[in-house]
Amino acid sequence: MARRVSESTPLKKALSPFKRRATTIAIVEYISLALTLILIYICVCMGVAFIFPFIYIKEWILWGSLVIFATAMTVSFVKKPNWDDVAKALDGHGLEERIITALELEDERDVFANTQRMDTLCYLESTSPAVIKFSIPKGRMQAIIGLSIAIIILFVLPNPKWDLVERYWNMRESIEEMAKEIEKEGKEKVARADELSDEEKEEITRLLSSLAGELEQSKEYKEAVAKISKTQDAIDEYMQKRQKERIDMLSSVLKEQDATASLGAAIEANDTEAVRDEIDKLKRQIQEGSDRDKIAKDLSTALKAAADNMLDGGLKDEINEMATMLSEFKSDEQTIEYALEELEELQSALVDNMCQGGTCDPGDIKYLLQDMKNSAIGGADALASHSGGSNAPDQMSGGQTGQGSDTSQGSGTAQGNSTGGQGAGEGQGQGGGIGKTGHSSAVGESHRLGGEAQVIENVQGNPTASGKVDTIEIEGGIGGTVGPIPYNKVVGTYRRQALEALDRKALPQGLENIVKDYFKGLEE
Amino acid sequence: MNITSEEIKGFSQTIEEIEGEIGKEIIGQQKVIREVLIAILSGGNVLLEGVPGLGKTRLVRTIGEVLDLKFRRIQFTPDLMPADITGTNIVVKDEMESRFEFQPGPLFSNIVLADEINRATPKTQSALLEAMGEGTVTVGGITRKLPNPYFVLATQNPLEQEGTYPLPEAQLDRFFFKIEVEYPSLDELHRIIDITTVESTLKAEKVIEGDEILRLQKLAMNIPIANAVQDYALRLIISTLPDNPNAPEVTGKYLRYGASPRGAQTLIRAAKVRALMEGRYNVAFDDIRAVAHPALRHRLFLNFEAMAEGLGVDSVIDEIIASIEE
Fold this sequence. Notes:
Largest interface: A-B, 19 and 20 residues
Order of helices and strands of chain A: HHHHHHHHHHHHHHHEEHH
Structural class of chain B: alpha/beta
Helix content of chain B: 40-55%
Shape of chain B: globular
Mean pLDDT of chain A: 74
Strand order of the largest sheet of chain A: 1-2
Distance between the termini of chain A: 97 Å
Strand content of chain A: under 5%
Strand content of chain B: 15-25%
Largest sheet of chain B: 5 strands, parallel
Oligomer: heterodimer
């Protein structure tokens, strides 16, 4: 136990330089011990890195070394030399227990104690602090040199796992870039999306920001894909909710107007056939009826009232436009023709909105997300092909990695002879060939990316012109249970995205008409 | 007792003077001289062991002269009776009456040289016990105090064991030190011959008197010893006990008996004197180690295995010392 020595005693003053030196030496010794332990730790880490890909080896080495060093420094502080230790060190260097005896006799004032103390002080004055020497054990020095050489050898030796680690970090970098891109471009696209209300823009921006933040935390492509899918679902859900509100409001207002009461009821019943019939009925009335001016006026009033009560964005603009056109209706052939076209467009818009459950689709944003997801999947594929499939998000039975859809969709002319379809998360089936009739012998796992892998074989394409729908039930996809998705829920999105793609000139010339005809055929 | 700092500091100088004077008549044997002085200044008795002719008697006589103490030599023989050394009551006749009067034996002096003590019978040897232990002699029911300071310096010849009576353990323990007198080196032998074969002009002079010796004894008793050093000494003593489970292997293997608490007292007292002799005012580990051999060699008893292997007590002590950390 350390003896309490008064700070002002001559003995204490004389011993202070020795204590400082002893403390310094103790710290140096602990540093050398910490260095030895750190080198051992690094050796172990690098050895482990040969057995499996040690992705965070740098972080482990850095933090582990810091912990070892901090522990050593803490211990050195706790166990720093006390007066007795200094006394022993000095006594061992020729002072022959003078110091330790003097410390014990510090409080004594008899002649023996005084004589002994004076003798000790005399010796201390003639002794240099340098007598307490730095002494790192020889074995420790040898260990430091040996471990350093071992680390260099381990570093120089080719380690096949380093390649995987490097790929992983490239992936992380790619995901981070993806997050930045989503954050930046997403906001720009949202700002440009005129079909969205301010509230919708704000919510989508929030979701994108949240996604960007989560992506930065993602450690795997699989995780990134899952998060993107989740955000896509969240945007869809939100937009569906908003559109449902629009449709509900539209139907309630239309029901209150005599001219559109039956149309409102059809919309409320979510009966697309009835909606088509009601609009066809209006078209016939305008085309053939003698009181077409009144009908147009009533219809204009009803649509105007509906638009006034609707939420911003989406259908509201189209209905407003229709109402304005009908308010200026004249019974000439050109106007009638124009009105009929507008009614037809309204019919399509209404059916589309109803069919897709009311999606006012922020196409550019979804395209951006899908693009990012595709990049992530591509990266995952590349990583999987190098890591033996350990990081692969999914595997194909036909030897290809596929991005499947929730719903494989086959349709007459557009159904291609594809061996490995790639589709969007929402279930877009895209064949490799267009315009040929055939069937897919093997299709990529039709599931939400990031989920449990499943292999689906022999999905038969339907070559009929009627566009028959095949629905495949998949379980275990990301984003919860995925059940059968009715055709009428997705066709609107497909059509809208296809048209947007046409607007962006994403398809080669000559194919545009095929796409248009295809969707037109679906409506028929 | 008022002791001054100068007295403490002057201790080593006095010892140097004593050693210098002794050195005039005793060539070499510095270690023996120093150990004898340590024992005397600690108030202890000494058993000197060595072959005849090494100057043991001369050493004791010289010490007596330098210390100005009354010196008596007793040659122990098998027919020596206790009364021959303690003294006896004799009939004294004068003109008036006849009476018994105590005639002091040779024990009544300051320094007694018990030469070849192992040649006397145990009865006579035990007559020394009271003198050595208590500093008194009891004859005819009357206890008489011996002069102070009082030292018994006994000698024994390790070679001739025939017709000897080895000292019992209890009596050995009463000796403060057992000092082995080594054969002098060639140079020392030359100097011995040079001095003793011609008429010598060198004569040891008195340095101090009996009272001063007593004062030096008391002074040495008060020299401080650190707890760590005392603990070291006591651990050394405990390590000589064969029954001690923490004792070094050599103890259990080669020792029959270990040192008694008197051995521990001897160790500390001798170390204090040695520290002062070295001009130091505290006891060091080196002091303990330096006095361990003379203090313990007659207190440790080897077993048959050690004797069969030809081991000496000193080598066992060395191993025990080496096994104890400071």
